[in-house]
Amino acid sequence: MPKPVRVPEIPEAEQTPLVRGLVGIIEEQAERLRQQEELIGPLKDEIAVLKGEKKRPRFKPRGMEERAGQEEEKSEPVDKRRPGSEKRSKTRMLEIHEEKKIAPEGIPLGSRFKGYQDYVVQELVIRAPNTRYRLERWQTPDGDVLIGQLPASVQGQHFGPVLRGYILYQHHHAHVTQPLLLEQLREWGVDISAGQIERIVAEGKEGFHEEKAAILTAGLEVSDYLTVDDTGARHQGESGYTIQLGNEYFAWFETTETKDRINFLSVLQGGEPKYVINAPALEYMQAQKLPKGPLEGLKHTPPIAFEETGQWQAHLRDLAITTKRHIRIATEGALLGGLLQGGVSEALAIVSDDAGQFNILNPGLCWVHAERLIHKLIPLNEHHRHDHHAIRTQIWDFYADLKKYKAAPSEEKKAELDRRFDEIFTTKTRFETLNPVLNRLHQNKSELLLVLERPEIPLHTNDSERDIRDYVKKRKISGGTRSDLGRRCRDTFASLKKTCHKLRISFREFIIDRLSAANAIPPLPTLIREQAASH
Asked: Backbone phi, then psi, for 365, in 5-degree steps?
């Protein structure tokens, strides 16, 4: 940006008509340059949006989180050192496995030994040791044959727990494909085939699947809220969807063929849906405007609980509930009834990006996704740009105050934030495209302001976005799944990996612990309950 032009003071005696005319031209040109600079910034932002870039336009402040933290940053000195550069002994905590003493060459006679100057080198030793177990065979006087027993960690396996754990860790954590793993292991001297790697990756993982299922039960038991998200996941060449749900205690993934509300309720039940007609189920059906006839039939016709989908569908047919919409509402209500009867709290909050399938129980909305609807709009003139920027600035300020409210809620702040929300989202701007978006967000007031009643819930779904991003990377590298077993393993290990991370457990150590049957690491559901109890 050019520096502003400053015309020096010219004595009155030297201000001839020519000089005054030139000064006027200079000032006019300077004003034109200033106006052009004001236009260039917004135009660059519009170009970025048209290119499909996801970053927010370079307004100041740049975004919700940065604006929310500005006041704190002003009061603290800026630390220009890179993270992790604090002065400390970088090798003090290392375990030394070998020491080598090196004397200098040509030590003169009469020199005195003054100790050592240490220099630590870290190395990685990669080798493929092979163990032959020689099981002794003994014949008893009765003619029976006794044979020594293999350790539990290698029962039925020709590869040790560390090697199998390495393969699982590389495949599910580092996203290394099976052909690359095969090439790598063979270069290291491991005699293994592609089929054996496939079996190590996918087969015999029932213990892991059971622990994954128990994670969901424990997570729902201790949670006040969930954040949720979904992404595409092709399976056997057909489109599918992976749902992520979780919070600070756990993460859980499940891939299915559909993404409607019936599917989401089934996923919350752990994939084994139970249909129950109880008070919450009937209330849901009534709220969804199920006609009186089908509603009364469901209310007064036994049975009221169904363990299998086929039984439930037959019950609907017996009640002459055949309209597609009526079947959907009744099924959603019965699944919700089964979920609540299974122990899930009616107070559970579901924070999402406003996808309709997640709109159950106590829905909350992500502010980042809500603001994105406004960010994506492209102003067409200066009035549009001014109003667009003004609304976004008000939203960021409001978001920052919501964060402060979460830290210290009060009735006075609650009333003030409620009033300001109405003020912002009922504004009539000169940007005609912006007004309906503001009105749409105003209609979602209860979901966006759920935090005023429940300060413990997050204002966004960033945790779910981060969790599911790892799943997307896996999909981009390896593509879709081909077998049901492969799809199940992908969901299981994604759930275990992210849950281990949230519980601050090494995923590699967890895998080896389970494969070696050491079980030194407690079950993840137990750790989830302990961590929730400590907060």
From this structure: -115, 150
Query: Which of 502, 372, 380, 399 has the alpha carbon at shortest distance from 458?
Result: 399
Backbone region of residue 456 per phi and psi (left: phi > 0; alpha: psi in -120 to 50; beta: other values) = alpha
Percent of the chain having pLDDT more than 70? 90
Q: Is residue 385 part of a domain?
A: yes
Q: Note whether 445 and 467 are same-domain residues.
A: no
Q: For residues 260 and 355, is the Cβ–Cβ distance under 8 A? A: no
Total domains, the chain: 2
Q: DSSP per residue over 85-114, as a string?
A: -SS--TTTTPPP------PPSSPPTT----
Q: Decide if 528 contacts 250 (C-beta within 8 A).
A: yes
Element of type H or E holding 276: strand 275-276
Are the C-beta atoms of residues 225 and 454 closer than 8 Å to each other? yes
* Chain segment 267-320, per-residue pLDDT in tens: 999 888 999 999 999 999 999 999 999 999 999 999 999 999 999 999 999 999
Measure the CA–CA gap between 103 and 106, rounded to whole angstroms: 9
Same domain, 344 and 484: yes
Phi-psi region at 392: left, alpha or beta (left = phi > 0; alpha = psi -120 to 50): alpha
Print the domain residue range for 475.
206-348+462-503+519-533
Question: Same structural domain for residues 313 and 420?
Answer: no
Contact 302, 312 (CB under 8 A): no
- Is residue 62 over pLDDT 80? no
Residues 150, 163: Cα–Cα separation, whole Å: 17
Bridge pairing between strands 349-352 and 225-232:
parallel
Q: What's the full length of the chain, in residues? A: 535
For residue 343, is it left (φ>0), alpha (ψ between -120 and 50) or beta?
A: left
How would you write 214-242 as a 3-class SS string? HHHHHHHHHCCEEEEEEEECCECCECCEE
Cα-based torsion angle of the residue sequence 74, 79, 83, 85 in order, rounded to the nearest 10 degrees? -170
* Residue 116, in any domain of the structure: no
Q: Look at residue 208 and tell me whether its pLDDT is greater than 50.
A: yes
Q: Is the peptide bond preceding residue 303 cis, with omega within 30 degrees of 0? A: yes
Distances (CA, A) of 198 to 60, 129, 181, 229, 404: 52, 22, 10, 30, 51
Q: Are residues 227 and 291 in the same domain?
A: yes
Distance CA 389, CA 510 (A): 49
Cut 0.70: pTM above it: yes
Give the helix, strand, coil percentages of the chain, each rounded to 5: 50, 10, 40
Is residue 380 in a domain?
A: yes
Pair 435, 481 in one domain: no
Q: Residue for token digits 């137990």? A: 526
